[in-house]
Amino acid sequence: MEIEKEVKKMTLGHEFGAGAACLKCKDKCDGFELHFWRKICRNCKCGLAEHDVAMNSEENKKVGKLFEDTKYTALMAKLKTDGVPSYQGNMVAITLPPLSPAYVLPPSAAASVVPPSAMAVRYIELLPPEKRPVAGTEGAAYRRQQMDRQLPEHDQDPSKCHELSPAEVKLMQQFVRKYKDEALGVGDVLLPEEMALVKAGGQGEGEGLGGRLGLEGHLGLEGHLGLEGQSCRHCQQPMRMGEPAVYAERAGYDKLWHPACFVCCTCNELLVDMIYFWKKGKLYCGRHYGDSEKPRCGGCDELIFSNEYTQAEGQNWHLKHFCCFDCDRILAGETYVMEKDKPVCKPCYMKNHAVNCSSCQKAVDPEAQRVSYGEFHWHAEPQCFKCSGCSKCLVGQRFMALKSFLFCSVECKKKIMA
Ligand SMILES: [Zn+2]
Ligand SMILES: [Zn+2]
Ligand SMILES: [Zn+2]
Ligand SMILES: [Zn+2]
Ligand SMILES: [Zn+2]
Ligand SMILES: [Zn+2]
Ligand SMILES: [Zn+2]
Ligand SMILES: [Zn+2]
């Protein structure tokens, strides 16, 4: 215990969110306590995002860091001018007429050239209602949860990872550099007809927009501004005149998406704050871009940069992280049971997860033969799986079940249930 505390102090110094109540487990969790390498709460095993923590400043720091040292630095800096490239995606609030909610906007939507509020509000309205990032609604909770899921801090910052070797740190830095140079971007919200103007106008004119979008100024041959042939890259349906579309610079401005169609190709979730990773013609969220490049550890959720790792149960694991989800005992060479996709050692399984035999009331060993019927279970042995009336062994026989009672025949059933 003491050693574990020490290790925790040394590696993950921050105690952010400590003690926060779990919104999912309520009273069952004594408050957030960071597991020293799993990135989840030791008490209830939920993530930090499930706990009641004010994430705004942490999220902003995270996204600021993600775009630090990229060509988007300027865009981020423009949105906040205190020196460090920062980000205030979820702080851009637009006040609408009384009684309307305050909208929370991705920066590029807010920074658009047309009357920003109208465009941004229209952009939000085009999202599914339960996913609109409106402060204090279900959509805000969705955004927060996706922020946590799609952009793991430990995919961008080696210091957020647990005990990396110098070689692993180097590989990770190269990985981060590569995606910042080749894949990472933020969507631009624009009317398609505006984009056509930008394209037609070329470099000289569209000072603000052209500059901001980093257009090279070469014109397509489509001098006319029609929307013919412009369909959403995701759903293939046509775009509508006067409705904002999302563009991704990495994809090229010849491609566009309906706001609700700007989703990750793997998880199909709305790309949080329009932060995307572009690879081989597809949009990914940060997590799934990472997964497409590297194996991810099923224990600590970090990408694996070491050559040595193990594959078990359809997942990848750092050698030292294939351990019991309940007690952290290393499982190499041990008997374990998969419980909700997580390996659990046999003692913990017996203590915390095993089902009890309806006959003898004892926990059923994971390796033992058992019979299950609805929510009832029995040892598949003559002394447990037997007729409640005449005690005849029912293993391999026809039987009737009534709650936890078993019968060999209607006669025995009548005898007991009468
Ligand atoms: Zn919880
Ligand atoms: Zn908890
Ligand atoms: Zn679409
Ligand atoms: Zn995804
Ligand atoms: Zn791991
Ligand atoms: Zn255990
Ligand atoms: Zn039994
Ligand atoms: Zn019987």
What does the model show?
- The protein is α+β, with helices and mostly antiparallel strands.
- The chain has four domains: 1-53, no CATH class; 55-297, no CATH class; 309-352, Ribbon (Cysteine Rich Protein), CATH 2.10.110.10; 357-417, Cysteine Rich Protein.
- It is 27% helix and 12% strand.
- It is built from twelve helices and 15 strands.
- It has helices spanning 2-11, 56-67, 73-79, 107-110, 116-125, 138-150, 166-182, 192-201, 207-213, 286-293, 346-353, 410-417, and strands at residues 93-94, 103-104, 184-186, 188-190, 245-247, 275-279, 282-284, 309-312, 315-318, 336-339, 342-345, 370-373, 376-379, 400-402, 405-407.
- It has a three-stranded antiparallel sheet with strand order 3-6-7. A two-stranded antiparallel ribbon has the order 1-2. A two-stranded antiparallel sheet has the order 4-5.
- A hairpin with a 2-residue loop joins strand 10 and strand 11 (342-345).
- It is elongated.
- The protein binds zinc ion (ZN) (8 copies).
- The site of one zinc ion has 9 residues, from loops.
- InterPro entries: LIM1_Testin, LIM2_Testin, LIM3_Testin, PET_domain, PET_testin, Pk/Esn/Tes, Znf_LIM.
- It is found in: Cell junction, Focal adhesion; Cytoplasm.
- Keywords: Cell junction, Cytoplasm, LIM domain, Metal-binding, Repeat, Zinc.
